[in-house]
Amino acid sequence: MSLVAFISDTHDNLPNVRRIVEDVNRRGVKLVVFLGDLCSPFTVGELEKIKAPLKGVFGNCDGARESINKRLEGMGVQFTDFLEFDFDGISFCAYHGTDRKRLGEIVSSGKYKVVASGHTHEPLVQEDNGVLTVNPGEACGYITGRATYLLFDTESIQAEVVDL
Fold this sequence. Notes:
Elements: E1 3-7, H1 14-27, E2 31-34, H2 44-47, E3 54-56, H3 65-72, E4 82-87, E5 90-95, H4 100-108, E6 114-116, E7 123-128, E8 131-136, E9 148-153, E10 158-163
Parallel strand pairs: 1-2, 2-3, 5-6, 6-8
Antiparallel strand pairs: 1-9, 4-5, 7-8, 9-10
């Protein structure tokens, strides 16, 4: 079994980022995918403490993209707007989700087993026509009052929203 962690919308809430990093390290997560709205480059300093490989995409509040990627270089990582990857034989797509129409097209394409997005700040785990759509909700907890991230098990193909 491999666990994949999805994190989104941290909005510079460093205490919550620290809590997530500690939890994913404790659980032995094998891959961390960041789904946008890190916001400031200084938050990368906390992500550097993740023991698993990191992948990620930018969100609509990531204005300092060049600076964020400059900080990520030390980890061998560069965030983009859209990410496709395979892990443990499963096809994934990561997109912040700012354009809801585009997100719907990605899901309905049937090209991916798992489509992960953020942006709405609302957790979601939904399966339609063989595609699992996940949203970890907001790690910051500013909008909903609920700080969350998401764990995906590659063996059972199940996702769980984790409350901080």
